[in-house]
Amino acid sequence: MKTPSGAVWRADWVDARGKRRRELLGTDKRLAERLLRERINERDAILSGVLTGKERLTLSALKDEYLADLATYAKPPHHADTKRCLERWVEILDDPEVRRIEPSAVLQRRRERLKEGRANRTINAEAGALTSALNWAVRQGLLNASPLANLKPLPLTAATRKKKRRALTDGEIAKLVKAARQHDEQTRRYVMAERTIESGTKSRSWNERERRPPIPQEPLFRTLLETGIRWNEAATLRWSDLDLGTLTLTIRPENEKSSRGRSIPITSELASALQRLRERHEATTGRLPHAHAPVFLASRGAAWKGRMNSNARKLLRDLLAAAGIAWKDEDTGETIDLHALRHTCATRLARQGMPPQSLMKLLGHADINLTMKHYTHLRTEDVRQDLAGISPLPLGDDDEAAPIRAAESELGTYSALDPAEQTDLDPGCDSQLQGVEEFGRSTPARVRTWNRLVRSQVLYPVELRVRFRVRKITASPR
Asked: What is the CATH number of the domain that holds 219?
């Protein structure tokens, strides 16, 4: 068709639904022909079943649909993380059509993140959000195949882990709990203004002002160390979840990572500490906590957030510093954070002989390999102590083997034969030794390792040495 500015090429074709389509493709004939071929090929692919006809869906539109469906069954933290990753991918890839997403672009982004020093696990999580959205589109019939179907995740090994945790020793546990008690006492004295009142610098009315004591934090860290529950599980724990009669702590499915829920037995000492904590809640808030009130509160009475926040991390860092414990080992790079307290509980119980199945149930794991691989930081000394209680290897108790074992214990596996030792043999064994010498000379295929004529130090097999020693021991005198 002609326009005032010149000729414009218009395409006229029938789409996959049988509807006639007309579209202006530009002033360049070659470009217009290429665009028309693309539309014809796309129509033929849809008619043949290779495409679904919905591939023009953009990544941003897919993100909205996927997140809306994900919100119906995923937990809020996972939904928030996935949303953040997908929004970043929309920005990086410039919101393309989902069918035109190139694996090379994803690989390029992955290489950039590796150069930034990100861990393989973090990079896999970012790429996993995109691949999960594309796989969801395939299941919903929006895509015939995912462009990233053959994208393999980066390996996850001990060498690729950027954040390594370590377990506290028994001595460090005692120091940390003591530091928490001292911190609670210092906070109480500060809030109650005891030092200022003792100094007498304020008026009587100021000294008599009503002040409520802070919530102690020692029971929180003690519970994390004794039960091994996650921080989110501790922050969302309610008084109705604690049964002081049966000494049981219940993690509700909606607060557990695996959404299965579990019951954890607790000691009577920990139950008494939690009961005293409830009384402190009443003194601080002015009312007895109800059944659905949080068990653990911050010092001023505010509820802890479910996800690890900066205040909780800072509190642990302060306690570690007060206890003289480095939060990060400069040599190994291992760190101590809130989740490391869970590792500490698992390692401590494993050292004391708790069966792996019981430990797995306590931690709420579905795979015992996860429990033993990542949560039990056993040292070489722990294995050495376990081996000390194992019975020695049975070597047999028959009379013929006893002299041989005694000779092996005395002489070792191999030794050098000093010529002076040749006179130690019993003269009654000369005939036997002569037979051995003749045996060595009559065997051309063997290398003679010892006879009475050799004066230099040589190594000889334990079988011959033991035979000579045993004959000396057992030979009767003339």
From this structure: 1.10.443.10
Judge whether 128 lies within some domain: yes
The parts of the chain modelled with pLDDT lower than 50 are: 411-433, 435-446, 448, 450, 452-478
pLDDT at 189: 93
State the sign of the Cα–Cα–Cα–Cα dihedral 227, 230, 233, 238.
positive
Map tokens 């929309």 to a residue: 90
Query: Do 451 and 376 reside in the same domain of the chain?
Result: no
pTM across the whole model? 0.66
The confidence score (pLDDT) of residue 115 equals 93
Relative orientation angle of helices 218-227 and 170-191, to the nearest 10 degrees: 160
Q: Is residue 16 part of a domain?
A: yes
* Structural domain total, the chain: 4
The pLDDT tens digits of the residues spanning 363-386 come to 988 888 888 777 777 666 666 766
191 with 299, same domain? yes
Tell me: the pLDDT tens digits for 220-257? 999 999 999 999 999 999 999 999 889 999 999 988 88
Domain region containing 17: 2-48
- Taking the C-alpha atoms of residue 473 and residue 402, their distance in angstroms, rounded to an integer, is 12
State the Cα–Cα distance between residues 172 and 322, nearest whole angstrom. Answer: 12
What's the confidence (pLDDT) of residue 71? Answer: 93
Total residue count of the chain as it appears in this document: 478
Q: Is residue 110 part of a domain?
A: yes
220: buried, middle or exposed (CB in 10 Å: 19+, 13-18, 0-12)?
A: buried
My answer on whether 133 and 209 are in the same domain is no
Whether 75 and 41 map to the same domain: the answer is no
